[in-house]
Design goal:
It contains 19 helices and 23 strands. By secondary structure, the protein is of the alpha/beta class. Helix 3 (about 90-95) packs across helix 7 (about 220-240), helix 4 (about 105-120) packs across helix 5 and helix 9 crosses helix 11 (about 350-360). The relative contact order is 0.14.
């Protein structure tokens, strides 16, 4: 009995001597997302790490004179969200020159052109913002005549480009300014559309060399660019996002994030995906990798080097995803195609894909690939298997980015290789209606096939692929994480149509895909994704109860408080 008393007194003394926390949250519904899915009331954070979770009474003793205390008043608290696919540096650059605006119809496009005519200096071309054809009400691109009507004698151009396919639509003034006549020859591999008389119509395919000199723009001043990037980081934080992955950057992007951090303007944690630049040979790829000023895993909990990335096919919104079966006649009009046997385009052939993946794997890097179509995924997994024969690849957590058309046989094959998935449910919401009409319901049943992937045990991270615009709901690819989760849970499109209900997941599964499973992709599962002792003190307090609110309320959820490493980086009303 005496021994027990001594132990109790010793433990009590130890607790009394424990240093105060930097931040304490009390009286919440704290969903820890630990192995037991515990729900507790309070969290304490010291030196960026969680030092206690439990009842409010358990955590209150860690409040000291300098502790920041937040009373959640019963609100839902979740681990900080891990947004594993954004293009933040690119979005910040674009926003400095032409703030993004989503245009929904030919009439809106024409109105936008008229506004630009009124404020664009004479001689400068008017270049339309990116508008995906799946988002245009008429399900087609504007015609040269419609640009003529809006721009008059001012050069105007719409550029529709993804990976290795480009379509340009020029009005007559732009054709004149570029010197494109009936005698102009297209560049190799390009095409100039002509009318019955042989005159150019204004539509160019893969002929960017004819207009590139008119469409260049100077990079934004460095200070303006950094300011916009810092602003975007704070906008992410307003959504409860505490970590991001910039999914296609380089050594310059790495320096940019380090500079933001040194200035004290980086409120979120960043993992960088490095785009491979090589000729696709093993020698060229090794030369590129060895030229990098860092290696895989370099950095710390704030700025870290992640995987290498290559692009394999195009995009489903552009008709360039590489599919097992032809797109079919019903897709021709949407994508501006003419061959019903067309299956998509590749950026890299099978040999080059294999060379790059094997070389990166041999040199100790995690690898990931942009690949959207199911046939493209087949080709990538062939390359992953080749690398696996060199040495086991499962420990590297190779990641398929997009992989939109989930197939059961592909899922089984990926599971054997320890492959992870990085995909974007909001594209089902924004583009599912147009894609269903073009690609058919059978294909859309497994579009963004989360359940297919999860059934075989694959780790799936869902995210936004945010690349243009600053508004969480109105950007080109909305980065509102609760819109992504809503779509994953309901499988509803913007019109309310339900596509592939068998691929729906639960609220907890969806949340894990943006917390613990997302952390797994970057080897951060011991640091992020759950509110547990020893993990980083990243959390979000929500405006609604994510677990019980009506489905239609899910996309309206925002953070009312976001904490990174015990520091409040966003608080509603401040």
């Amino acid at each position: 009995m005496l021994a027990v008393l001594v132990l109790w007194v010793s433990a009590a003394g130890s607790l009394a001597q424990e240093a105060p926390a930097d931040f304490v949250l009390l009286d919440g519904q704290v969903h820890t997302l630990d192995a037991e899915d515990r729900v507790v009331q309070a969290v304490a954070i010291r030196d960026e790490r969680i030092v206690r979770v439990g009842a409010t009474a358990d955590v209150q003793p860690l409040i000291g004179p300098r502790t920041v205390v937040y009373r959640a008043m019963g609100r839902t608290v979740i681990p900080g969200l891990n947004e594993t696919h954004v293009h933040a540096t690119g979005a910040a650059q674009i926003e400095t020159s032409q703030p993004f605006r989503q245009l929904h119809s030919i009439a809106e496009i024409q109105d936008w052109v008229r506004q630009q005519v009124a404020k664009t200096p004479p001689g400068e071309w008017i270049r339309l913002p990116r508008v995906d054809v799946t988002r245009i009400r008429e399900r087609r691109l504007p015609t040269p005549a419609e640009l003529d009507e809006a721009a008059g004698d001012r050069p105007a151009v719409y550029v529709w480009q993804y990976a290795n396919r480009q379509v340009q639509i020029l009005n007559r003034a732009a054709l004149r300014a570029a010197g494109i006549t009936r005698d102009t020859q297209p560049p190799r591999g390009g095409k100039i559309h002509r009318d019955a008389a042989g005159e150019p119509t204004g539509i160019l395919e893969d002929a960017g060399a004819l207009t590139s000199r008119f469409l260049t723009s100077a990079p934004a001043p460095r200070e303006e660019y950094l300011s916009r990037l810092a602003e975007l980081m704070h906008l992410y934080a307003r959504c409860g996002i505490t970590s991001i992955t910039d999914r296609s950057t380089n050594a310059e992007g790495w320096k940019t994030y380090l500079e933001l951090r040194q200035r004290g303007q980086l409120p979120l944690r960043v993992t960088l995906t490095i785009r491979v630049s090589s000729d696709g040979s093993e020698v060229g790829t090794e030369r590129f990798i060895r030229s990098l000023p860092f290696t895989f895993g370099d950095g710390d909990d704030w700025v870290k080097i992640g995987p290498l990335k290559i692009g394999v096919d195009g995009g489903v919104l552009y008709g360039t995803a590489y599919l097992r079966q032809p797109y079919g006649e019903q897709a021709l009009a949407l994508y501006g195609l003419s061959d019903p046997s067309y299956r998509g385009l590749l950026q890299m052939g099978a040999t080059k894909v294999t060379n790059v993946i094997r070389t990166g794997h041999r040199l100790g890097w995690q690898m990931c690939t942009h690949v959207t179509g199911d046939a493209g995924v087949d080709m990538v997994l062939d390359a992953v298997e080749a690398a696996d024969r060199d040495s086991p690849i499962a420990p590297r957590r190779f990641t398929l980015i997009h992989a939109y058309f989930a197939q059961p046989d592909t899922a089984q094959r990926a599971a054997r290789l320890g492959v992870c998935i990085d995909t974007q449910p909001a594209w089902l919401y924004k583009d599912g209606d147009a894609l269903a009409a073009a690609l058919g319901m059978a294909r859309m049943e497994r579009f963004i096939g989360l359940a297919t992937w999860q059934t075989v045990g694959l780790k799936v991270a869902m995210n936004a692929d945010h690349m243009q615009g600053f508004d969480p709901d109105l950007s080109l690819n909305p980065y509102n994480p609760f819109l992504a989760m809503y779509t994953a849970i309901t499988r509803r499109t913007e019109s309310g149509q339900v596509l592939g209900p068998a691929e729906a997941v639960s609220r907890t599964q969806a949340l894990r895909m943006m917390t613990s499973d997302a952390a797994w992709l970057h080897f951060d599962e011991t640091k992020k994704g759950a509110l547990e002792m020893g993990k980083l003190g990243d959390l979000a307090v929500l405006s609604h109860d994510y677990f019980t609110c009506p489905f239609e309320e899910l996309p309206k959820i925002r953070a009312v408080l976001t904490v990174v490493g015990g520091k409040v980086v966003y608080r509603a009303g401040l």
